[in-house]
Fold:
Amino acid sequence: MLRKHREFYANLLFMQDVIIISASWILSYYLRLKESIVPLYEYPPELKYYLVLLVFIVLLWRIIFKYFRLYSPKGRYSLINEIAGVVKASTVSIILLTTLTYFFRHYEYSRVVFIYFWFISIVSLSLSRIITRKVRSYYLNKEGNQRNVLIVGAEALGKDVLKRIKRHPDLGLKVVGFLASDKENVNSRIYGSTIIGTYDEIERVVNTYEVELVIIALQLEELSKVKCILKMIECETVDIKIVPDFSQFITLRGETEEFDGLTLVNVQSSPLYGWNIVKKRIFDVVVTFASLIVSFPLLVIIALAVKTTSRGPLIYKQERMGMDGRVFGMYKFRSMKVDSEAETGPVWAVKDDPRRTWLGKILRNTSMDELPQLVNVIKGEMSLVGPRPERTIFIEDFKGRLPKYMLRHKVKAGMTGWAQVNGWRGDTSIEKRIEYDLHYIENWSVGLDIKIVLLTVWKGFINNNAY
Structure:
């Protein structure tokens, strides 16, 4: 029911957008070429040339809006986020449209029309979405249009279902109450709703309250009761949905998927598969090659400085753990004296570390000793953005006392990361770094990678915790 409802709403939005985009394009044509404030230097082109381009515009806007999840059933429920999505998608679309029309050598379209169209379409699409939300919410919440919902299960999972329903009044769902496992809790209140019976009273409650949707949200230990509950209402015409209690097992990017008609629940997975791997790799290669070209003079200067100021190799190769627990050799400009760990063994770098050379102190404080890792990125061992890799000897300790630590290795290690641009690097909280690294993995996108790279450059490479 919910899926069909959202699919209908998504199709309605698309048809509405097609009308608005078409009207905005034609209006932009007339404002610039028929009623122009700025004088034209030649006879205005006929409308038919712009109508031909409109076909490509509708198709392009559809693809970009879908990419930004503006028609997705899981899309943005926040109005502010939806309007922001419209602005972003429209801007990307107009840039692509302008680029494409550059190759139409046989005809030159007015760039002023494009500017008008960009502004008018954003305002119109945003207003239409605001109005549509208001009308939809008003209609669905009118008495008689709401669907009565019964939640079976009054524990944490059932409470979570109620909170989510309350967050989305636009769905037109009205919770009539809960069913609990025992009579002691009957008539108790949960977030404004009442426990109106027990599991074995479900048939009576469904008929008494004219329930149209039953949501079964039982704790894992109560799942054995589902069969009996379904048996009691098998003759009723209600919609039934089951919320599986797998939240306690989900550690990373929990979601469901279908495999040949079989529903699978992902409790732990990586975001990088399929086209996502290709997109991230293209981003890494393009930006890394550009960085190598720009930074080449600096790399030469640092290399000469390291070689002439202290005895030992130019590049230091250190064993680190990357994606899926694979070990690789991470490159750095040597910043410490030769055999600096001969007596102490592997230890953390500390403030005013006596093992550093005077040049190494500068390199580490500015993070310029990390620049050779651009080669690791080209080789595919690392990514520009991701959780910072750690030495394997320290990981043995971390994974023993920090259960979620190894989840960082579901993506490639990075030269910079979400934790680093938020200040969690060097001798700072490992727990906080894990929190930020997992947030990055959960929310990965090429856009987030670009944001982190820009923040790395914007905030500079100097950090008080880098030693």
Summary: The radius of gyration is 29 Å. The chain is about 50% helix and 15% strand. The mean pLDDT is 83. The CA atoms of residues 165 and 334 lie 57 Å apart.
